[in-house]
Amino acid sequence: MRFRDKFLSPPIRAGRPVRSRGNLTIMTGLLVLPSAIAVVMAVELVALTNERAVMQAAADAAALAGARDLMVSGSSQRNAKNFAERFAITQVGNYTQRARVAFSARVEREGVFAVDGFAVRPSFFGNLVPKGGF
């Protein structure tokens, strides 16, 4: 048997050639849903990573601003905390329109000023996972 006859001719089952028409449609149909889910999850994860970076940058900048206000300006701890929390909110910009954002500032010990950020937003694609948002 020649190479051409063995590998390039259609397969034969029960004496008749096997027809392979429509296989591409079936395979495409089976692969579309998992591919779409993977794309949706990738978009969501990229957005979450970006938003986490924005929140981290805002918390870092607010901690530096609060510490500066406390040490250089000589304001009270309460005023420095309020200043840092307002400063952090201004740093996240329009993210506050898409999510519930809150910052909490505290003075732990002499020279240590900490700011924690919290944000919850709904999923871009409805309430996929988790149901209440991220």
Structure, described:
- α2 runs antiparallel to α3 (77-92).
- The protein has one domain (20-120).
- It has 134 residues and is an alpha+beta fold.
- The chain has four helices and four strands, in the order αββαααββ.
- A hairpin with a 2-residue loop joins β3 and β4 (112-120).
- It is rod-shaped, with a radius of gyration of 29 Å.
- The strands form two sheets. It has a two-stranded antiparallel ribbon. The protein has a two-stranded antiparallel sheet with strand order 3-4.
- The chain has helices at residues 3-7, 23-71, 77-92, 95-98; strands spanning 12-13, 16-17, 100-109, 112-120.
Average pLDDT figure: 82
Radius of gyration: 29 Å
Residue share in helix: 55-70%
What characteristic shape results from the CA principal axes?
A: rod-shaped
Portion of residues in beta strands equals 15-25%
The number of distinct helices, counting runs of at least 4 residues, comes to 4
Uncertain spans: none
Q: Number of folding domains? A: 1
Counting DSSP E segments of at least 2 residues, the number of strands comes to: 4
Overall structural class, as computed from helix and strand content, comes to alpha+beta
Question: Looking across the biggest beta sheet, what order are the strands in?
Answer: 1-2
| Order of H and E elements | HEEHHHEE
Calculate the terminal CA-CA distance, rounded to whole Å. Answer: 63 Å
Oligomer: single chain
